[in-house]
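Reviewer comment 2.1 asked that we show a complete input and output for one of the modelled complexes. We chose the uridine-5'-diphosphate case, as it is the one discussed in the main text.
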Amino acid sequence: MRIDVLGVGFDNLTMAEAVEKAWTLLGQPGARYVVTPNPEIVEVCREDGEARAAVNGADLVLPDGVGVIKGAAMLGTPLKEKTPGVEFAGHLMAKMAEGGKSLYLLGAKPGVAELAAKRLQAQYPGLRIAGTHDGYFQEDGPVVEEIRRSGADCVFVCLGAPKQEKWMAANGTATGASLLCGLGGSLDVFAGVVARAPKFWSDHGLEWFYRLCKEPRRIGRMMKLPLFLVHVRQERGRK
Ligand code: UDP
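Response of the prediction step:
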């Protein structure tokens, strides 16, 4: 059973369990998809029914950061641990490299996915990259067709939220892939275009603050974080 945090149901898994579950899905017929919501996305889901349906319709819903973990604990239904999308993806790629599965990288600005592919192949020897495409296309059809023709087993869909969640819900099956993972800005991290917060910051639940210092224009989006905590408190009061 999923743990409800303001209308989004999260799977209560450790990182190792989440990766194992994704690996199992990757070996099964049919298209499945993974989402990694943070408080900002939970807030978007409160306002946008289509986004909420796409997120809750996923086969794996993983808490991306400490905010959701805090929220779940405040509601008296704690989650085991945070499972940041970028780390989850790293573990999954290690397994894909060993198991001979192929990966398609979709998203980010032109050139970023290609650069990420090169770096990931060096980092995970044996990883098969089926193809890449930037995230600034007008029509889904040709991109879906390109992925289908690539024969990819897995697709990392990095178009930002909630675009990527809606995209996977609408197009997942048509890509022919077994597993799609919505991973936000991960391709920028894999390409080395954007740095992740040093371990100290993430260990202290301050990854969001690090990102804010690096990219002050995120302030508008980040104001959703205190709003999320206000909504969690209200929800706790109703229980
Ligand atoms: N992006 C994209 N297509 C779009 C809008 C965004 O490919 O139409 C990419 C953008 O270039 C970035 C990623 O989606 O690489 C979103 O990154 P962000 O840091 O906003 O996502 P988060 O990790 O915070 O969800």
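The chain has one domain: 3-238. We note this here for comparison with the apo prediction described in Section 3.2.
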